[in-house]
Amino acid sequence: MGMDREHEGRIAVVTGGGRGFGKAFGHALAARGAHVVLADIEPAVGEEAAAEIRAAGGSASAFPVDVADELQAEALVADTVAKHGGIDIFINNAGLHSAAFNHPTSTLGVAKLRRLMDVNVMGTIICTMAAAPAMKGRKGAAIMNISSMAAYGCGTAYGVSKLAVQGITMMSARELGPDGIRVNAIAPGLIFTETIRAELPPAVVEMVKGTQLINREGEEPDIVEMMLFLCSDRSSFITGETYRVSGGATLQI
Ligand SMILES: NC(=O)c1ccc[n+]([C@@H]2O[C@H](COP(=O)([O-])OP(=O)(O)OC[C@H]3O[C@@H](n4cnc5c(N)ncnc54)[C@H](O)[C@@H]3O)[C@@H](O)[C@H]2O)c1
């Protein structure tokens, strides 16, 4: 089979699938033959993204979920299994990283800190626990997590949450390897999604770009390429790893 339809017939679930990376992952997997379930906390945004993929000729549906809530994560998996028989690819992409969460712990406050950890850390563990039984023994089963370049300096609680994602990736790879499920992660640098473009102050953008070794803006396709590789049989001997896609910026931290 050519790479153009390498996910034919597979069932893929993408959390935070309504926008940004999640939506881009959905488009790319559907274009290669997968049915994609976009699981977003904002139902209308998920539905809209699924309709966009269908309009482009792909197969997609939406399911509302808060990844930090185990009952909702279990409902997402149960609904997907009932409709499609199982899950081949699960992408833990939902994460809080907006300007509202990118502050020192002293100004962030405990309530926001707890929510940040609940979504970025517990959400990744909860969804992995929920999805694993539906993926066990399926050929090419792959889970992908999203860390960040912020994990390398840990200058903020966000960075700490994303370092935890790297640890979860190793833990899950060990726990789920015997079930034939590979688990890997991507640590993106600064990537110009809509949210980043709208929220990040120009001074921060310039500062981060100044640390890159490749002098251009990081874009969604840069992350999509790595996702396609890590979720395909082309990476069948790789598990427990986090790959940096940052234009070299992570080397400077
Ligand atoms: N854009 C970047 O430069 C960058 C860099 C490093 C890491 N990341 C990580 O990549 C992931 C996606 O980033 P993005 O830029 O596409 O984000 P985004 O904010 O544009 O989109 C995130 C989506 O997740 C959904 N979401 C938020 N909380 C949720 C929850 N509890 N349950 C389910 N869905 C939820 C939102 O509704 C939104 O649709 C995040 O984990 C982020 O931390 C992004």
TrEMBL record:
Entry keyword set: Oxidoreductase
Molecular function terms, GO-annotated: oxidoreductase activity
Family matches, as InterPro entries: NAD(P)-bd_dom_sf (IPR036291), SDR_fam (IPR002347)
Family to which this protein belongs: Belongs to the short-chain dehydrogenases/reductases (SDR) family.
Name of the protein in its database record: Unannotated protein
Species of origin: freshwater metagenome
